[in-house]
Amino acid sequence: ARGMLLHLYTRIYFDDEAGNAGDSTLALVPADRRATLIARRNAGAGNVYTFDVHLQGDNETVFFDV
C-alpha cells in the first residue's frame, strides 16, 4: 500500500489442513479474526486456493509483529 514503510508478516493456513486445530500460533488469534489467515480451496480446481490480503478495513488480514 502506498506510504507503508514497514514490512508486514502474516501466515497462511489451508482450510482442509487437519493440523490447524492444534496450531499454537493460530490459537493465539481471536476466533473471529482467524478466517483472515485461511486460504480456501477452489471447488473443482484441484490444489488451487484463494488467499486475499486486506491491508485495512473490516476484513483486515491479521499481521504479526515479529
From TrEMBL:
InterPro entries assigned: Intradiol_dOase_core
One GO molecular-function entry: iron ion binding
Keyword annotations of the record: Dioxygenase, Oxidoreductase
Superkingdom of the organism of origin: Bacteria
Matching SUPFAM superfamilies: Aromatic compound dioxygenase (SSF49482)
Protein name per UniProt: Protocatechuate 3,4-dioxygenase alpha subunit
Lineage, broadest ranks: Bacteria, Pseudomonadati, Pseudomonadota, Alphaproteobacteria, Hyphomicrobiales
